[in-house]
Amino acid sequence: MIEQQIKAAIRDIPDFPKPGIIFKDITPILKDPVLCENINSAFTEKVKDMGIDAIAGVESRGFLFGLSLATKLGVPFIPVRKAGKLPYSVNQKVYELEYGTATIEIHTDAFQKGDRILIHDDLLATGGTVTATSELIKEMGGEVAGFSFVVGLSFLKGREKIEPISDDIIILADY
Q1: Which of 3, 29, 76, 91 could form a disulfide with 54 if both were Cys (CB 3.0 to 4.6 A apart)?
Q2: Are 103 and 130 in contact (CB under 8 A)?
Q3: pLDDT by residue (tens digit) across 22-49?
Q4: With contact defined as beta carbons under 8 Å apart, do 151 and 122 qualify?
Q5: Are the C-beta atoms of residues 81 and 121 closer than 8 Å to each other?
C-alpha cells in the first residue's frame, strides 16, 4: 500500500542532473501531509523494535523524514552534513564519488560511544554516501543499527554494498 502511494506521488525528471539520468523527485510527496504521515507511520512500525538510540539523517533530503521519525521514536536526530556546514567541532569522512571525492561531517558530541544509530536518507542509489556515513559513525564509536530509505533504485546495487554493514535495510518503494 505505502509503496504504491509513494510511487504515485514521485515525479520522474529526465536528464537531471545530467543527460541519461532519470531523477526520482520526492518533493511532490511533501505536498501531501497524509502521505507524509503514512510514510512516518510505516518507518515507525518497521524500526520500533530495533533498539535505536538515534537517527542520522544524510544531508539534505535525509532530514525530511529522518527528523520526524526521530521525534516519533523519542530519540535524538543527528544531521550528517557536507563539509563546512556544521558550526561546532566535527569528525569528518572523505569518500570517493564517481567523479571525485566528497566530505561529510558529524558533530563530535552527536552521540555516545556504543549508541545504535539508524542511518536515514531519502534514496538509496549506489550506497556511497551512507557507506561513508556508517564508517564515520563506527570511527566515532557508534554502532550502525540499520538503514532506512523512502526510495531504492535496485538496479544501482546500493543494497548489496551496504548489506555487509547491516542487513536491517528498510526501503519503502523500490524501483
Answers
A1: 76
A2: no
A3: 999 999 999 999 999 999 999 999 999 9
A4: yes
A5: no
